[in-house]
């Protein structure tokens, strides 16, 4: 039985049997219960006469099915998430009337009640295959059709969809919104968003290249309306539209553009055609790092890029999901650099996206960018760092390989020739070959069809001439990756840097070349004086790990704060982190590097990522015997740096939060309490609501706050964010771990954001031994977690509850061995579940190695 799965073979067979033309979907969201709503679907499609097929539907019950006017018994036709049809005509009309269930997990039609005013908000999330939770549908991306929605809601609500409403009819209680048909779309990018949403008051439109005015709206929950940055969000979208129209050489393809910020969203955003949904954490009610503001802009531009690449032109099947997402990720950073004031987006890309890609690509579960997607279960676990970040990194390398002008010309031809249709990777590559003159079949095999990452090391020989050190030869050695064991072609830049008279590291020379094979000579450097630093892959055009020679490494670590270029500095930091993860440097050495330099770094995203890496080094990679002393020293240093930072600066804000995260001694926790209460004030640091919650969670984990303090804070902040923060704080209490565990596994499943915050609080523990009793129950529950929860919720539980923090500690036993025992004893467990456990085991294994290196000392430094 298929359950809720769909195989690629089934999808191909269905696409060969039918072609969908139009859907008319009527939803009653006004008169149902808090659990269910009524859905009626009328779909017209053509078919091979006499053939059989099925439509997808996940419903509580089905009241009516008719095919071409003939009633079909739902009890026999509807089973296992499918409506089975036989004896099709050439032209067909299917009607399905069903009772559907609202979601609390962010999948299908999510229902949320705002604790601030008790108003209800709905939004749809259909990728990968959840439109079938709202209406009957042939749910696969290559069966496009038009969609016409009619939606009944309480009279004071607003409804958003892929088109602007034709009309609204109703009375004082119920209003019915009528939407015109969409252009041909895949069902996963259709959308319904409904509730008393606040719409930004600024009326704004974009004039397209073909002379149309595209209205742009921005909306969020009413209780957050005062914080909505309507003008900035509209201006960024308009700048992005202008850039993309020129890049794609194609006008914006839809009739309007809505940005709706919705509650309890699992991802950053979703590219529903002309109706993009965003996580409402991007509506800033308190101070956030500038990195978060930058991320909001990148996300905005990412989803906007999909309007052309993804929505107008759509992949045929999910094996090209990587292309859809990687392309939008690459284009969003390019647009940010070329169309906004954020000119350091490639630094952000290297620091955030590429580090994610490298981590994912070194797991035992790594896969080629073009991964085999045999069914929907494969899709769920391939929304990963390979799909998004490595793919985008490799696209950046492809742009360097073929030339940016040629690349964009090929993309424009691809969009123009295939708009409103479905495509495969070969369609894009053929257009790029035509515009660039480069043969890409071998390039594709090397980069897209094999997994893993290569490491590039410099090999340098010098001699002293007239008292100066001169390079006699310089070459780049490429090491095969562990996954595929192959060498790849790289188009990259070698930069040489010197300390100038002003004490800054500035670039002396730029050499762009192709690196291929095991050893590539760089004759341009022979005969020149040895620079203070030689940086492989300067400008970050290639996807690889790099190492520095001893002189360059010493220069970089001693003068990290004086790089004239933020991207060059981020590349050095990335190399240091790679060396730490790979066991070539000790965690203590990396901690010292971060603490010695972070006070002078002004790039917000670099600071965010360095603080995350600092946390990993302290909590997982440091030797357990010396960890307490190292964490105490790190917290003291973070507090000193926060006190020294510029008043009101982003750096001051981030350092304060990091100090609270690592504060562990009575004196440090007392300082956290003093900052929260106002007994100590850092000039310029506003103790706003969300920062106060962060500090309270730290106090709860450190036994300096209790249930009464949490209740007082919640009474002062009776909002959805307040409820989530209170859950996190309670779960952080050392005395509340059992209650948190029981809430995660109770009969009534938690809403997605409540579950996530419970997990975040549960894993906070100064004494990790209190988490030891949950290791055995975790492994015992793994299979039931996977079978009883939706994929999103199950993955949260499997990954967050894995006892990674107990690696190397007696309380956890041998975590790596425990995971292996489970894998050995559950060979028939679902592949996606086994993959997640294997990945977590690998994180633990890497932590074991790093702890051993840290216990021995600094490592080789190479």
Name a few traits of the molecule:
six-stranded mixed sheet, 862 residues, 27 helices, globular
Describe the protein in words.
The protein has 862 residues and is of the alpha+beta class. It contains 27 helices and 30 strands. An eight-stranded mixed sheet has the order 5-4-8-2-1-11-14-13. Strands 16, 17, 18, 19, 20 and 21 form a six-stranded mixed sheet that branches. A four-stranded antiparallel sheet has the order 9-10-15-12, with no helix packed on it. The chain starts with 7 loop residues before the first helix and ends in a 6-residue tail after the last helix.
Count of separate DSSP helical elements: 27
Distance between the termini: 54 Å
- What percent of residues adopt helix (DSSP H or I)? 40-55%
Secondary structure: number of strands: 30
Short description:
By secondary structure, the chain is α+β, with helices and mostly antiparallel strands. The model has no long low-confidence stretch (mean pLDDT 96).
Helices and strands, with pairings:
Blueprint: H1 8-17, E1 18-28, E2 36-47, E3 53-56, E4 61-67, E5 70-72, H2 74-77, E6 78-79, E7 82-85, E8 91-101, E9 108-113, E10 120-125, E11 146-154, E12 158-161, E13 167-170, E14 174-178, E15 192-195, E16 198-199, E17 205-207, E18 213-220, H3 230-248, E19 257-262, E20 269-270, E21 275-279, H4 290-306, E22 314-315, H5 321-339, H6 345-361, H7 376-381, H8 386-402, H9 404-418, E23 422-423, H10 425-436, H11 441-448, E24 455-465, E25 468-479, E26 490-499, E27 505-515, E28 519-521, E29 533-538, E30 545-546, H12 550-558, H13 566-581, H14 587-597, H15 604-621, H16 624-644, H17 650-662, H18 666-677, H19 689-701, H20 707-716, H21 720-732, H22 737-744, H23 752-762, H24 775-788, H25 791-801, H26 815-825, H27 831-856
Parallel strand pairs: 1-11, 18-19, 19-21, 22-23, 24-30
Antiparallel strand pairs: 1-2, 2-8, 3-7, 4-5, 4-8, 6-7, 9-10, 10-15, 11-14, 12-15, 13-14, 16-18, 17-18, 20-21, 24-25, 25-28, 26-27, 26-29
């Amino acid at each position: 039985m298929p359950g809720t799965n769909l195989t690629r073979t089934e999808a191909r067979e269905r696409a060969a049997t039918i072609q969908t033309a139009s859907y008319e979907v009527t939803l009653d969201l006004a008169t149902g219960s808090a659990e269910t709503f009524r859905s009626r679907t009328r779909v017209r499609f053509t078919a091979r006469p006499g053939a059989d097929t099925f439509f997808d539907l996940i419903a509580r019950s089905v009241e009516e099915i008719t095919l071409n006017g003939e009633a079909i018994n739902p009890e026999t036709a509807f089973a296992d998430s499918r409506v089975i049809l036989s004896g099709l005509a050439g032209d067909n009309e299917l009607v399905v009337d069903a009772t559907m269930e609202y979601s609390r997990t962010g999948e299908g039609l999510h229902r949320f009640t705002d604790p601030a005013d008790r108003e209800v908000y709905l939004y749809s999330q259909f990728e990968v295959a959840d439109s079938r939770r709202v209406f009957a549908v042939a749910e696969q991306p290559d069966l496009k059709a038009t969609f016409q929605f009619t939606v009944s809601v309480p009279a004071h609500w607003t409804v958003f969809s892929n088109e602007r409403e034709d009309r609204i009819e109703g009375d004082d209680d119920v209003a019915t919104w009528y939407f015109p048909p969409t252009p041909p779309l895949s069902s996963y990018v259709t959308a319904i968003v409904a509730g008393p949403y606040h719409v930004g008051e600024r009326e704004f439109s974009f004039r397209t290249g073909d002379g149309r005015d595209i209205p742009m709206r921005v909306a969020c929950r009413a209780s957050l309306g005062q914080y909505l940055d309507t003008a900035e969000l509209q201006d960024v979208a308009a700048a992005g539209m202008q850039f993309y129209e020129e890049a794609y050489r194609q006008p914006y393809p839809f009739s309007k553009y809505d940005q709706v910020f919705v509650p309890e969203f699992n991802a950053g955003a979703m590219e529903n055609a002309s109706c993009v949904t965003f996580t409402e954490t991007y509506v800033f009610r308190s101070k956030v790092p500038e990195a978060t503001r930058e991320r909001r802009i990148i996300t905005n531009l990412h989803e906007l890029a999909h309007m052309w690449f993804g929505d107008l032109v759509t992949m045929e099947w999910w094996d090209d999901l990587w292309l859809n997402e990687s392309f939008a990720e690459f284009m969003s950073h390019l647009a940010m650099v070329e169309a906004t004031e954020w000119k350091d987006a490639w630094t952000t890309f290297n620091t955030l996206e590429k580090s994610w890609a490298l981590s994912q690509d070194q797991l035992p579960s790594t896969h080629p960018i073009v991964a085999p997607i045999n069914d929907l279960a494969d899709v769920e676990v391939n929304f990963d760092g390979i799909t998004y970040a490595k793919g985008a990194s490799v696209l950046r390398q492809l742009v360097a390989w073929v030339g940016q002008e040629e690349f964009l010309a090929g993309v424009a031809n691809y969009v123009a020739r295939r708009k409103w249709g479905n495509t495969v990777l070969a369609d894009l590559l053929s257009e790029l070959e035509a515009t660039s003159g480069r043969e890409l079949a071998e390039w594709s095999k090397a980069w897209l069809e094999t997994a893993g990452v290569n490491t590039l090391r410099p090999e340098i020989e010098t001699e002293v001439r007239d008292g100066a050190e001169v390079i006699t030869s310089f070459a780049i050695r490429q090491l095969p990756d562990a996954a595929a064991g192959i060498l790849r072609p790289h188009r990259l830049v070698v930069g040489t840097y010197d300390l100038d008279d002003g004490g800054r590291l500035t670039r002396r020379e730029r050499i762009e070349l192709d690196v291929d094979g095991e050893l590539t000579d760089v004759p341009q450097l022979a005969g020149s004086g040895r620079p203070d630093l030689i940086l492989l892959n300067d400008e970050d055009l290639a996807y690889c790990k790099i190492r520095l020679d001893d002189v360059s490494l010493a220069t970089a670590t001693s003068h990290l704060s004086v790089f004239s270029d933020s991207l060059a500095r981020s590349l050095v930091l990335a190399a240091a982190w790679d060396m730490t993860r790979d066991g070539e440097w000790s965690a203590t050495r990396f901690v010292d590097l971060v603490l010695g330099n972070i006070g002078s770094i002004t790039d917000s995203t670099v600071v965010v990522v360095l603080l995350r890496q600092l946390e990993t080094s302290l909590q997982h990679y440091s030797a357990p015997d010396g960890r307490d002393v190292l964490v105490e020293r790190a917290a003291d240093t973070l507090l000193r740096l926060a006190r020294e930072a510029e008043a009101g600066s982003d750096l001051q804000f981030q350092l304060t939060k990091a100090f609270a995260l690592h504060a562990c001694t009575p004196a440090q926790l007392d300082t956290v309490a003093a900052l929260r209460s106002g007994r100590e004030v850092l000039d310029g640091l506003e103790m706003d609501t969300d920062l106060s919650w962060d500090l309270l969670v730290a106090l709860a984990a450190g036994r300096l706050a209790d249930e009464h303090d949490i209740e007082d804070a919640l009474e002062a902040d009776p909002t959805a964010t307040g409820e989530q923060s209170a859950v996190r704080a309670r779960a952080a209490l050392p005395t509340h771990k059992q209650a948190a565990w029981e809430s995660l596994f109770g009969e009534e499943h938690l809403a997605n954001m409540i579950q996530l915050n419970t997990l975040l609080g549960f894993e906070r523990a100064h004494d990790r031994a209190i988490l030891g009793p949950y290791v055995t129950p975790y492994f015992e529950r793994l299979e039931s977690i996977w079978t009883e929860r939706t994929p999103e919720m199950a993955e949260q539980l499997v990954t967050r509850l894995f006892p990674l923090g107990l690696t190397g500690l007696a309380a956890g036993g041998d975590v790596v061995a425990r995971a292996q025992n489970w894998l050995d004893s559950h060979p028939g467990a679902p592949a996606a579940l086994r993959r997640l456990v294997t990945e977590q085991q690998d994180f633990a294994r890497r932590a074991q190695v790093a702890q051993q290196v840290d216990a021995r000392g600094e490592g080789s430094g190479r």
